[in-house]
Give the backbone structure.
Amino acid sequence: MGIKMKQIPLEIKIEADWTLLGHVEIHGRPEQGHRAATRFYYHEDYLLENMDALDHRNYRALSLGTPLNFGLKSYPTWHPYLLDILPNGAARQAWQKRLGIERDGPSHDLDVLYNAPITPPGNVRVQMENRKQLTTIDHPGFSKNEIIDRGMSFIDYAEQMGAMVSGFSGAGGMAPKFLLVKDKKGQWHGDQAIEEKSIAEYYIVKY
């Protein structure tokens, strides 16, 4: 893999639209992974559009510890938000297998971060150029019984059946968890696999 990235763009969802929120700059060697120093700054256009919320820590900010302002904030390791959405446990193991990563370690953190958490819980995510392509895959979905019967192997089964699985494992932890949505016809899909107007309910399924 070996993604060489020093700047990670983040986007935020306010009401119905996703917009560029800011950037996390990585100041360290790629092999350091999450141990590399970082700093975060909000995108100027986003700040100008939210001047009424400067220094606030509400839903328009990246996090409680990162209020809206024009400054740079430095961290000795990755920004806490990136650490929070970096897959771990069963989700990380599944993504490393999918990405062809044989040995675990910090040097693969950036590859896993950029490819796996397409739809982490919350209203902030890593901005990806190929997201639109991933979310336009047409699939009829799965029944509740298929999800239950397949158990922990469901994500592999879904991929074999041609479903978009990038959003399934945004929830971390050692136990396998899938982020799923149920459409208005009662069929189940991975998070972000279908348009929001077609979604009836949201779920975290844990085995």
